[in-house]
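Entry 12.
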Amino acid sequence: TIEFVLGCISNTASYLRLWALSLAHSELATVFFERLFKATLEPPLGNFVAIFVGFAAWAALTMGVLLGMESMSAVLHALRLHWVEFMNKFYAGDGYKFAPFSYKTVLAELETPEAD
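Predicted 3D structure (tokens):
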């Protein structure tokens, strides 16, 4: 059916998005390594202080940016799984009014005698 085809396309696009994000992670890590840390190893900067500062800058930027991107990816993927896949498979939307769980309601139902 058309819903199956659209679901397949949606899932494929979602996983392509995850692949693109992982590719961006790899490229950013390479750029940070080459521009921040590797540059301090070559002359004229090749002393201990420059290497230490370069490593600290590389580690901080790599962890900050890449962990931020990964956290965003994880949150967005979880939201997508809940909203798109879960709602497509299990949510019927039959029009029943939502009644949140309440101990007061449960106790009131237990106290009132049922008329059979």
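Annotation: The two ends are 46 Å apart (CA to CA). Residues 3 and 9 are 10 Å apart (CA to CA).
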